[in-house]
Specification:
The structure holds two protein chains of two kinds.
Chain A: E1 7-11, H1 15-27, E2 31-35, H2 38-47, E3 52-56, E4 58-59, E5 62-63, H3 64-73, E6 79-84, H4 89-97, E7 102-105, H5 110-126, E8 132-134, E9 137-140, E10 145-148, E11 151-153, H6 157-168, E12 173-175, H7 176-184, H8 190-210, E13 217-220, E14 224-227
Parallel strand pairs in A: 1-2, 1-3, 3-6, 6-7
Antiparallel strand pairs in A: 4-5, 8-9, 9-10, 10-11, 12-14, 13-14
Helix pairs in contact in A: 2-3, 5-6, 6-8, 7-8
Chain B: H1 3-54, H2 61-67, E1 69-71, E2 78-86, E3 91-104, E4 108-117, H3 119-153, H4 156-166, H5 184-234, H6 236-240, H7 244-272, E5 280-283, H8 284-301, E6 305-310, E7 316-319, H9 321-337, E8 344-349, E9 353-359, H10 387-398, E10 401-407, E11 412-418, H11 427-434
Helix pairs in contact in B: 1-3, 5-7, 7-10, 8-9, 9-10
Classes of the chains: A alpha/beta, B alpha+beta.
Chain lengths: 230, 435
């Protein structure tokens, strides 16, 4: 679960996409405010304090970059995740220069969005000092350590990344494609990479099993995997 | 053979026929006229002699025989051609001869042969023929000379048009601006070509705009589809029905493929439209190391032996960072996709070239066609087959060389990108040369 009462402002002009993103974020336990355009978003950042702002750069009534400038001018502590179209690579670079924390290129996996938001909030709010707990697991991100009931679990880099990704989306079905892109970069063709996801998952499961925790990772046949609460 | 040579050839052929025919006609005509003239002269003398015989003014036969060729035995009568020895020139000379009977009073009939030399006639004919041949030769030389002059002068506008057409590139988005030369045909041609290129540029422009707009408008619905399908996968009811989830997952996968295809196509059209203007120094060695590291799990999963050899560092290339990334990713992915399980992959980078080679089954077909869009070795492959097209477009955009080679008995495929020789300060010149 996401840290309690984390407030997110979602700025996206496409209603259907906004609904889907907001739905996914709410399922992960965030409090989500929605803004459909520049003016609305600008009003909201003046009035309220957010932990994270998801910012679509192309808005009908203004530029997302201007919104980012306004946020930074106010000295807002909110993390900013830029959502951008692929053909606006240069906007992305400008956004990062203006102090955005991260960017996502449309179209993206919702599970990837969750992972990025979670990482931003962790970095911003807790200086990375936050612990992640899930059932019998305890993860210390700043040390890149995983403990199972107090015992250290030794994982490879990829297994650790995979576990963190699952932990960022507890209870969600993660598609194989989303996992592949998360681990291997977004240009990787998913079909090429199912083998290695399978291998890493198998190893991760085995290591968890050796520590006595079973059935954390469920296979959703034909779809992907899920970190299960029960 | 150019047009002028071709037409001149026919002119000359016609002239040759006419000259041969004319010469023959002239020869026979003059020959006939001269012989008739000689015959008339001989007939005149006969008349004269016969008249004298009638008037009994002829001397005796013995006296006549000094002047004329006289025989007392009958000879064949009428005109004949004969050859006599010319004593002064000591050669046989053709003569015309007229034989007739003559009755000299008191001495009975004798046969007289009058002769006249034809040697002047032949000389005349010789002169006529010589003149004709000389004129023919002059005509030929004249034609060739005229041809050269004409092709240099008259056809100059045509050549200019041709050069303009050869150098024409639709990608520059400029219509042809050909001048209107004095020759009507060329002026018409240029006018037609100008109109043609204007239509072409306008059509191309609207096509590009359409593609760009279509790409932009497709993007959002695709993003919505992908997000909503992913949300649909989370619906608890789906987990209870084992048949439903894979259906949604298939839909989701299809959407992903579509959006990948869309990304690749819009990248291609952006490169073609030169929308990646600003180049900046890119550390190709660092980028390559990073990309290789990122793909490591993929290599491991395929049990590939892989190696990275950076001979000199840093390797700095002036290009758009996004395109540099795309170039490397597509090259590496191509090397993975067409590899065999347990095969090898090697990336080599020097200041002059980037080489990515991989093992893999020999591929049928022309290597030049590997760079074509939607070209797949395996029709069932998930990939749309645009990777190498993107590589090729990026190389063409920056003026990099790109070649493909198959070695080691057709089992090792190597793609080689030749980087511009000068990096750093000289690089802007390379860029402008590629524009």
């Amino acid at each position: 679960m996401a840290p309690l009462f984390m407030k997110i402002l979602l700025v996206e002009d496409e209603a259907a996409l906004r609904t889907a993103l907001a739905g996914s974020l709410r399922q992960n336990g965030y409090v989500v405010d929605e803004a459909a355009g520049f003016a609305q978003a600008h009003e909201k950042i003046e009035l309220y304090k957010y932990d994270c702002v998801l910012l679509d750069l192309t808005l009908p009534d203004g530029s997302g970059l201007d919104l980012l400038r306004a946020l930074k001018a106010e000295g807002s502590a909110a993390g900013v995740l830029i959502i951008t179209a692929r053909d606006a690579l240069d906007d992305k670079i400008a956004g990062l220069d203006l102090g955005a924390d991260d960017y996502l290129i449309k179209p993206f996996h919702l599970s990837e969005l969750n992972a990025r938001v979670r990482a931003i909030i962790r970095r911003r709010q807790f200086n990375g000092q936050q612990q992640i707990t899930f059932r019998d697991l305890l993860v210390l991100p700043e040390l890149a350590e995983v403990h199972v009931r107090g015992e250290l679990l030794v994982l490879t880099k990829k297994e650790y990344d995979l576990l963190l990704y699952l932990l960022a989306n507890p209870g969600r079905v993660l598609t194989k494609e989303a996992i592949a892109e998360h681990l291997c970069g977004d240009a990787v063709d998913a079909a090429d990479s199912f083998d290695f996801i399978y291998t890493h998952l198998k190893n991760l499961r085995k290591k968890l099993q050796e520590k006595g925790v079973e059935n954390y990772i469920r296979t959703m046949y034909g779809v992907g995997y899920k970190l299960s609460h029960e | 053979m150019n047009l002028l040579t071709a037409t001149t050839r026919y002119y000359l052929l016609l002239a040759l026929f006419l000259f041969v025919g004319g010469s023959l006609g002239l020869y026979h005509g003059i020959n006939w006229a001269l012989r008739t003239e000689v015959g008339e002269q001989l007939a005149d003398r006969r008349r004269e002699l016969l008249a004298k015989a009638q008037a009994n003014e002829l001397p005796s036969v013995s006296q006549l025989a000094i002047l004329l060729d006289i025989s007392r035995t009958p000879r064949p009568l009428g005109f004949r051609d004969t050859v006599l020895l010319d004593r002064t020139e000591n050669e046989m000379v053709p003569h015309r001869q007229l034989t007739f009977p003559l009755v000299v009073r008191g001495e009975g009939p004798v046969w007289v042969s009058l002769r006249k030399s034809l040697v002047e006639t032949e000389d005349l004919l010789g002169v006529v023929l010589a003149v004709m041949v000389a004129v023919l030769a002059l005509l030929l030389a004249g034609m060739v000379g005229l041809n050269r002059w004409l092709s240099a002068r008259l056809w100059a506008p045509f050549r200019h048009t041709l050069a303009a057409l050869r150098g024409y590139n639709l990608q520059q988005h400029q219509p042809l601006a050909l001048p209107a030369p004095a020759v009507a045909e060329f002026a018409e041609l240029n006018q037609a070509l100008n109109g043609f290129s204007q239509r072409l540029v306008a059509d191309y422009q609207s096509l590009r705009e359409f593609t760009a707009n279509a790409a932009h408008e497709t993007q959002t619905p695709l993003a919505i589809m992908q997000a909503q399908l992913e949300q649909l996968l989370q619906v608890p009811a789906l987990a209870e029905d084992p048949a439903a989830a894979p259906l949604v997952a298939d839909l989701y996968r299809g959407t992903l493929r579509l959006s990948r295809l869309h990304q690749a196509l819009s990248l291609l059209s952006k490169i073609e439209n030169r929308q990646f203007a600003e180049a900046q120094p890119v550390r190709l060695d660092e980028l390559l190391t990073e990309r290789m590291a990122q793909l490591e799990p993929l290599f491991d999963a395929r049990e590939l032996r892989y190696g990275l050899d950076i001979a000199q560092a840093p390797v700095v290339v002036l290009m758009h960072p996004g395109l540099a990334d795309s170039l490397l990713q597509n090259l590496l992915q191509n090397a993975v996709r067409h590899n065999v399980r347990g095969g090898a992959l090697m990336a080599t980078l020097t200041r002059h070239e980037l080489k990515v080679s991989n093992t893999g089954p020999a591929t049928p077909g022309d290597p030049a066609r590997f760079f074509e869009r939607f070209r797949k070795h395996n029709a069932a492959s998930d990939s749309p087959g645009l990777g190498l097209s993107i590589v090729q477009q990026i190389c063409a955009h920056y003026g990099f060389g790109l070649s493909y080679k198959l070695t080691e008995h057709g089992t090792r495929h190597t793609l080689r990108v030749t980087l511009p020789a000068a990096v750093g300060t000289a690089a802007p010149a390379v860029l402008s040369a590629s524009d």
